């Protein structure tokens, strides 16, 4: 990507735990022109793909997925932390670089056979995106790929996912 969107990030050391350098997207969100450019760049990457729904991962993934869904005029589904979605849900637990977590999707969020693109702000170890994809597959749908704003290449998250279907705008 020719645009350097890394200037829209700031590093927060020791968050959420010691030794982690958190890539904060707040400066991007505070800049409507740059945020629009990021959404346009992400849309360009996926505009020709056959996708039924975008799956935004709790919580920053919602920001990118909802803006992309509106731009591309396709539906968006949320993968949330436990207890945040009403109705019947499907759950998946997973490990991440600083602990463990669980994601849930409403059981009726999409239909078997649908093609779902998983979206989040950052690809780190890949555990969260893999859990979201596992949920998609549990529900009989297909993971069409992954799209991230930032990829932390040194954490090798791409290896946990299908590398051919992983896209990101900024790489560290």
Automatic annotation (TrEMBL):
Q: Does the keyword ATP-binding apply?
A: no
**Phosphoribosyltransferase domain: from which residue to which, for each copy?**
28-144
Q: Which GO terms describe its molecular function?
A: adenine phosphoribosyltransferase activity
Compartments where located: Cytoplasm
Pathway assigned to this chain's UniProt record: Purine metabolism; AMP biosynthesis via salvage pathway; AMP from adenine: step 1/1
Q: What is its EC number?
A: 2.4.2.7
Which InterPro entries does the protein's record reference? Ade_phspho_trans, PRTase-like, PRTase_dom, UPRTase/APRTase
- Protein's UniProt keywords contain Transferase: yes
Reaction(s) this enzyme catalyzes, per UniProt: AMP + diphosphate = 5-phospho-alpha-D-ribose 1-diphosphate + adenine
The record ties this protein, via SUPFAM superfamilies, to: PRTase-like
**What's this protein's function?**
Catalyzes a salvage reaction resulting in the formation of AMP, that is energically less costly than de novo synthesis.
Q: By its UniProt entry, which PANTHER family does this protein fall under?
A: ADENINE PHOSPHORIBOSYLTRANSFERASE
Q: Which family does it belong to?
A: Belongs to the purine/pyrimidine phosphoribosyltransferase family.
Quote the protein name from its UniProt record. Adenine phosphoribosyltransferase
Organism field: Lentisphaera profundi
